[in-house]
From TrEMBL, chain A:
The keyword Lyase does not apply. Keywords: Oxidoreductase. InterPro entries: Ald_DH/histidinol_DH (IPR016161), Ald_DH_C (IPR016163), Ald_DH_CS_GLU (IPR029510), Ald_DH_N (IPR016162), Aldehyde_DH_dom (IPR015590). This is Aldehyde dehydrogenase domain-containing protein. Residues 516-589 are annotated as: Disordered. It comes from Batillaria attramentaria.
From TrEMBL, chain B:
It comes from Batillaria attramentaria. It comes from the Eukaryota. This is Deoxyribose-phosphate aldolase. GO terms for cellular component: nucleus. Keywords: Cytoplasm, Lyase, Nucleus, Schiff base. InterPro entries: Aldolase_TIM, DeoC, DeoC/FbaB/LacD_aldolase. It catalyses: 2-deoxy-D-ribose 5-phosphate = D-glyceraldehyde 3-phosphate + acetaldehyde. GO terms for molecular function: deoxyribose-phosphate aldolase activity. The keyword Hydrolase does not apply. Pfam families: DeoC.
Length: 843, 318
């Protein structure tokens, strides 16, 4: 053993160890893992349609052991043709795989679980060899989680049809595992995809491809049918990944990695109709209150940053500490640093192993250096003994300010920045003052405080008095730049299914100029020039955008007919003071509506943000009362509105009434759902309580469909506000009047100002600015294929959630398409809350 | 050798606002043994170190001079001489840390030790062990007698009636008196953690005993339902660390009850080394109260030296 022989004879005699009580090396053997690599001659092909495939030509890349730099194996870079072969195999297998009974699919997954269990040690060593994660974690945390996950998803496979009525799988799923946590991130996505009936093409990172290759070998051994799981490997430039994601027959992309790559992928698939789940970077916070167990906090920091190289996106790299205990905690952490061991990842004694990539230590050093120059104090443990591998010592940064790059930017490394705070309110503000929203933990012995802070943190996971605990049954996923979509739990399964009524989107042939789309208002819609003395239809209205509750005076100019315009008490004049005519189906001008602009979007977002803070915290019962009241008041104006609808759209008599009645029904429906989708208890092997709370998404921009001008608008805004969101709606561009008519109803139904804001005008123009506004959390778009593509592309910038129709008509009169689970899914943002219990001991 | 803990005046502030999160403590305890480990000669050396920290104990109604003197011999020669020689340890003076008996058997120990010409600490439990439910006057008298008979260490039990009732000043005052009664003999205070009901009480009891001058704090008598567990010990060690930070006095730690295997013993040494540092891995600040542990260690050492697993009869009994 190299490490042993390095010790001098004298210092490793029993006598001398007896005196010093020093540790010796406790390495795990890597011979079985290396034998597996040798079986493959250390040269891997792609795994396509049940067998290994090595094309003659093709460039290769090598994967190294981060602890030693030793080359472990070489993998191919997938060419266009390789990707095509893999996707074709998956697509063919989908036909048979998706038509199996759920139980048969479950049995296959169960078999995979059994086989992974049999090879636990091999899988652990391989993960450690390839990614640098220390053996203790691979063996005690990662692989048990993998085994647990496969069993858990085998269960979902079995109950799929009972639990997900009205849903079907997507088809071919591209799974792109994280490069720093390859095994777990792959397994959970793979299993969720397979359990629901999809087939999969995996494209692992060229840095850490081995766990995917080993896992697929185990799947083959377990008897998984050919083509159900395929693996194509990739080169450093990730061309293979791009080819796979862009492939016309890939229907869903599940990616775990950095925000930068996630954004690129989202832009790449914009408008193609591919579903995406993205788990991206994080900069999570640990919030430590004075009434917490500080020694356990210290171990929490070790568990969460100083053990796994901080190479998970949930790692709490921002340590926010209550001022009275900040110094004490810093002292305890400095002391603890002395016993954190950095060393070979296979050594049982290493707390921190090597970093996954060779460039990482330099990047971390730059951040630390910068903090040092800014006046922060840096405390580090002794660095790794090996000078061959890619190590960085565990580091504590004290005195870095909240604006320092080391605090704001995500970089993967065992570095924690301690930042003091004065009050709980300030702690929450600091924690939420981040571009990321992956996870957070709260440390306090006060249950009252813990729950309150937990509810106010913007993060996909909140742990109380622990950090980085995970399980297959508990959802993980972020908001903001940390991505969207969940892994784990029922919601994580739903990510891999679509409505049974969904039809495939046409291949991406739409060309959109992202620079110019909607950037200027289309020419004013031409209206027939009325002849002298022509009578305008009765009821002409001058309407303004509606986004505030500040009463303003109606314009003094009377309408041509001299009657008082129907001007809402709390409408706002458009910033640009322009308006556009609205015509009915016969081309007659029915009224003028405001031409809202970029600045109106800005003002509306401000109003909505202000409103959503309290609206989202209202009791569901209270929101329900308001929605029921809305429905009741709409009922009172049923005839009037239906007549107007018919006059506007020219639809047959009676259809207007039908639409109004459906809208009333929908308001009742969403009123009912105000207090019936709060979340679920997650059944995890954990002593305590784990719940997934469905929180509001925030401010949602909605571009409503052209058709069903009343029902489309109502179906969408009511779903959103039912779950506590605030809305900026752009009603049907052609027929905005019915939506505007709801103004008065809002007023008389106690709907607080700012919860629903309406902007009339050019739909594409307003959509553009909604997408480009960083403080809009989601955009729903029901318009053209071009617009859909733009929305998905532009939203990638701040990773806001999107829901678009790809130019396909949606029948809002059909209850399957006009309400239901899909609406709830898009109206909510889950947060998993982990609360350990167990104070009682002994007698 | 560190200065003995002189104790400090009772200060309620030190046991107020104590926050202990048991699930978090358990997580740390669970991973202690998986984060660290020793193999090969390291394992043998660590096991030998553990031997020197053992308070070799017999606390039974049927103890007589016969088994007590056998115990003393084993304490003086805990590992077969041939095994020590094979490891180059024959001149290291390996003995257990102490023998531990009831007060009435202290004189037997004293006699056995002088005939063995061994200078091994004689520890005696006292103060109405294991329950402490006798009048204070008698508990103090018990200490004095044991010391008079030759005990160099006294393992007292704290008053659980007062502790559970929250009368920490009462506990302090009693332990203070016991410390006086011990005189030169070292005082180990048994908290009987399994009867204290909460980890916060474990911390308070630790701190109160240290304020009252304990040389060691000890987990349990071995007679409670729950004895020496790693989570309980973590809480006690953190109290020792805090007390050291505030007073600069180093107080020792003694887990007792249920420690039976060589592997366990190494985990306890890991715990001490990781939480308090190397100083707390030596017999002046660390003891393990055990009776069957030594036999298992000796068998493991047999295996280390010979490469063969030992039969029970291959190590002499205590």
């Amino acid at each position: 053993m190299a490490a042993t022989s390095a010790q001098s004879g004298a210092s490793s005699s029993v006598r001398s160890i007896f005196e010093t009580l020093s540790y010796g090396p406790v390495p795990d053997a890597d011979n079985v893992a290396k034998a597996w690599l040798d079986d493959h001659c250390r040269q891997f092909g792609h795994f396509i349609n049940g067998s290994w495939y090595k094309p003659e030509a093709g460039s290769q890349s090598q994967t190294q052991n981060p602890s030693t730099g030793e080359v472990l194996a070489s993998v191919l870079e997938a060419s266009e043709d390789d990707v095509n072969k893999a996707v074709t195999a998956a697509k063919e297998a989908f036909t048979s795989w998706s038509s199996l009974t759920p139980h048969v699919r479950a049995r296959y997954l169960y078999s995979v679980a059994r086989h992974v269990q049999k090879h636990q040690q091999l899988v652990s060593v391989m993960e450690t060899l390839d990614s640098g994660r220390v053996m203790r974690e691979s063996r005690d945390i990662e692989v048990p989680l993998v085994v647990r996950s496969v069993y858990h998803y085998a269960g979902w496979a079995d109950v799929r049809d009972a639990e997900f009525k009205g849903f079907k799988p997507y088809g071919v799923v591209a799974v792109l595992p994280s490069f720093t946590r390859p095994l777990v991130s792959l397994t959970q996505r793979l299993c969720a995809a397979l359990a629901t009936g999809n087939t999969v093409v995996v494209c692992p990172s060229p840095t850490t491809p081995l766990s995917a290759l080993l896992l697929v070998d185990i799947c083959r051994e377990a008897g998984l049918p050919a083509g159900v799981v395929n693996v194509v490997t990739d080169g450093r430039e990730r061309d293979g990944m791009r080819r796979l994601v862009a492939h016309a027959h890939v229907d869903k992309v599940a990616f775990a990695g950095t925000t930068q790559v996630g954004r690129m992928l989202r832009q790449l698939v914009a408008g193609t109709g591919k579903s995406m789940s993205l788990e991206l970077s994080g900069k999570s916070a640990m919030i430590v209150f004075e009434n917490s167990d500080l020694d356990s906090v210290v171990e929490g920091v070790v568990d969460n940053i100083w053990s796994n190289q901080c190479q998970v996106n949930t790692a709490g790299s921002r340590l926010l500490v209550h001022e009275p205990v900040a110094e004490r905690l810093a002292r305890k952490l400095r002391q603890r640093l002395e016993t954190v061991k950095v060393g070979d990842s296979l050594d049982k004694l290493s707390d921190i192993g090597a970093l996954t990539c060779d460039w990482m230590p330099n990047v971390i050093e730059q951040f630390v250096d910068e903090a040092r120059q800014e006046g922060a104090q840096i405390y580090q443990a002794a660095a790794g003994q090996s000078n061959r591998g890619w190590f960085y010592p565990p580091t504590l940064v004290v005195g870095a300010q909240a604006a320092s790059r080391i605090v704001t930017e995500d970089f993967l490394g065992p570095v924690v920045a301690l930042i003091p705070f004065r009050t709980a309110k300030e702690a929450i503000a600091l924690a939420n003052n981040s571009a990321y929203a992956m996870a957070a933990s709260v440390w306090t012995e006060s249950v009252t405080l813990a729950f309150e802070v937990g509810s106010l943190l913007q993060a996909g996971t909140v742990w109380i008095n622990c950090h980085n605990v995970s399980d297959a049954a508990a959802g993980v996923g972020g908001g903001r730049l940390s991505g969207s979509g969940r892994t784990g739990g029922k919601r994580g399964v739903l990510e891999y299914m679509q409505l049974s009524s969904a039809t495939p989107v046409k291949p991406n042939t739409v060309n959109v100029n992202m620079q110019t789309f909607g950037s200027s208002v289309a020419p004013r819609p031409s209206a027939p020039i009325p002849g002298a003395g022509d009578e305008k239809p009765a009821g002409e209205k001058n309407l303004s955008p509606y986004y505030d509750d500040t009463p303003i005076t109606p314009p003094s100019t009377p309408t041509p007919r001299g009657e008082q315009p129907d001007f809402p008490r709390n409408g706002k004049r458009p910033d640009g003071q322009y308006s556009r005519p609205v015509q009915n189906a016969k081309g007659q001008v029915m009224g003028h509506v405001a031409e809202a602009s970029r600045k109106d979007v800005r003002n509306a977002v401000e109003a909505a943000q202000k409103a959503v803070a309290s609206w989202s915290k209202r009791a569901g019962h209270n929101r329900a009362q308001i929605l029921f009241y809305l429905a009741e008041n709409l009922q009172l104006r049923r005839e009037e509105l239906s007549a107007q609808l018919e006059a506007l759209t020219g639809q047959a008599e009676g259809q207007g009434l039908q639409e109004v009645d459906l809208a009333i029904g929908r308001l009742f429906y969403w009123g009912a759902y105000c207090d019936k989708y709060g979340g679920t208890v997650q059944e995890v092997p954990f002593s305590g309580s784990v719940s997934e709370v469905n929180e509001a998404v925030g401010v949602i921009g909605i571009a409503c469909p052209e058709a069903c001008p009343l029902l489309g608008f109502v179906s969408l805004f009511a779903a959103a506000i039912s779950r506590g969101n605030a809305v900026i709606a752009v009603p049907s561009e052609k027929y905005p009047l019915p939506a505007l008519d709801l103004y008065q109803i809002f007023d008389t139904s106690d709907l607080p100002g700012g919860v629903v804001n309406i902007l009339t005008g050019n739909s594409d123009h307003l959509t553009r600015f909604l997408c480009e506004h960083e403080d809009v959390q989601a955009v729903w778009y029901f318009g053209s294929a071009e617009g859909s593509k733009f929305v998905e592309y532009a939203s990638a910038e701040n990773m806001k959630r999107t829901w678009v129709n790809y130019g396909q008509e949606r029948d809002f009169t059909d209850p399957v398409q006009g309400q239901g689970e899909e609406f709830l899914f898009h109206s909510t943002q889950p947060k998993t809350l982990w609360v350990p219990m167990g104070e009682i001991f002994a007698n | 050798m560190a200065a003995r803990n002189a104790g400090v005046d009772f200060d309620e502030a030190w046991i107020k606002n104590v926050y202990i999160n048991l699930p978090a403590i358990k997580r740390r305890a669970e991973t202690l043994g998986t984060r660290r480990g020793v193999k090969k000669q390291w394992q043998a050396a660590w096991q030998l170190r553990a031997v020197t920290c053992i308070d070799l104990t017999t606390l039974a109604g049927d103890d007589t001079p016969t088994n007590v003197s056998r115990l003393c011999y084993k304490a003086a020669h805990p590992v077969r001489r041939d095994l020590l020689k094979a490891m180059g340890m024959e001149s290291a003076g390996i003995t257990t840390g102490a023998v531990c008996v009831y007060p009435s058997r202290v004189a037997d120990c004293k006699k056995a030790m002088s005939s063995l010409q061994a200078k091994i600490n004689i520890a005696s439990v006292a103060t109405g062990f294991p329950t402490g439910q006798t009048p204070l006057k008698m508990r103090l008298a018990e200490i004095r007698e044991a010391v008079q008979d030759g005990a160099t260490e006294i393992d007292i039990v704290i008053n659980r009636t007062m502790a559970i009732g929250g009368d920490w000043k009462g506990v302090y005052d009693e332990v203070r008196l016991m410390k006086e009664a011990c005189g030169e003999a070292h005082m180990k205070t048994i908290l009987a953690t399994g009867e204290l009901g909460s980890m916060v009480n474990v911390y308070r009891a630790s701190m109160v005993c240290m304020m009252a001058g304990a040389d060691f704090i000890k987990t349990s008598t071995g007679k409670e339902g729950v004895n020496a567990t790693l989570p309980v010990s973590l809480v006690m060690l953190r109290a020792i660390r805090d007390y050291y930070e505030w007073t600069k006095f180093k107080v020792g730690f003694k887990p007792a009850g249920g420690i039976r295997t060589a592997k366990d013993a190494c985990t306890w040494l890991v715990l001490m080394k990781e939480e308090l540092g190397d100083e707390w891995t030596k017999p002046d600040l660390f003891r393990i109260g055990a009776s069957s542990l030594l036999g298992d260690i000796e068998r493991q050492l047999f295996h280390h030296v010979t490469g063969r697993y030992a039969a029970p009869w291959e190590v002499p009994m205590a």
